[in-house]
């Protein structure tokens, strides 16, 4: 009864005014009166506040529900809590129950710093509220003047149309493989690197270049293997780990950006300069790809 009473408190007038109390989406059923979430008939444990968030999103499927609206419904004005942390926690628990992820949502989509939207097709199990929800989900919502069309899934961190995670992860892995090839080629041919470096920077300068190549190559090989394995196994905290490692990655990649000048005798100054310019930007491309595939949920939820 406690879940039912609290559900009534949040003021879901349209849902309560009807006789149908079961709303379905995918393999899930939401029993609004009893406050239960079921998957293929099996009850899934879901706490009160995450269930209230789900009920509010189902009341307005396809439409953004503002964070302020959720907070005002979940906590009275005289309640002293960390609203952002509490709301983030409730949304996290809801996504866990649904098997959903913010970076590639099937049900709950984040509208960065503004709110959330329920994006899955919704239907009822007999009429009433579910029918109203189904009609709402099939009705196109007019886009706000300053927002993207509702049928375009926006990335929760960068506010751009979300690309396929498989594509961004594959591009990131290809970049790591490229750097591995650089390191291995330089280490296997370090004497040639010394000869070329000595031709335009003799003495201690060439020794310093060779030393930097050997050290950064030796460090870079395990680093790139770690990043490749992290993306290949889709480690969910890879974005956080990469942000911690990025200053070191940036310094190392900027150093290796001058590597094309070691091939200047073969490719010419113009090609070496162009390749260096592209390599200087590459670490920032790596960061963008990681943010696309592994957004910072703590900041955007």
Question: How do the strands and helices of this protein lay out in sequence?
Answer:
Layout: H1 2-9, H2 13-16, E1 22-25, E2 28-31, E3 36-39, E4 42-44, H3 48-59, E5 64-66, H4 67-74, H5 83-98, E6 108-111, E7 115-118, E8 123-124, H6 129-138, H7 165-188, H8 190-200, H9 204-232, H10 238-256, H11 264-293, H12 297-300
Antiparallel strand pairs: 1-2, 1-8, 2-3, 3-4, 5-7, 6-7
Helix pairs in contact: 3-5, 7-8, 7-9, 7-11, 8-9, 9-10, 10-11
Could you please describe the fold and organization of this structure?
The chain has 301 residues and is α+β, with helices and mostly antiparallel strands. It folds into two domains: 2-138, Winged helix-like DNA-binding domain superfamily/Winged helix DNA-binding domain (Arc Repressor Mutant, subunit A); 165-300, no CATH class. It contains twelve helices and eight strands. Strand 2 and strand 3 (36-39) form a beta hairpin. The longest helix has 30 residues, at 264-293. The chain starts with a helix and ends with a helix.
Structural class: alpha+beta
CATH architecture of the largest domain: Orthogonal Bundle
* Side-by-side strand order of the widest sheet: 4-3-2-1-8
SSE topology string: HHEEEEHEHHEEEHHHHHHH
Report, as a whole number of angstroms, the end-to-end distance.
30 Å
CATH class identity of the largest domain? Mainly Alpha
Residue ranges: pLDDT <50 for 5 or more in a row? 1-20, 127-151
Kindly estimate the percentage of residues that lie in beta strands according to DSSP: 5-15%
Question: How is the CATH topology of the largest domain named?
Answer: Arc Repressor Mutant, subunit A
Describe the largest sheet: 5 strands, antiparallel
Number of strands: 8
Number of helices: 12
* Number of separate domains: 2
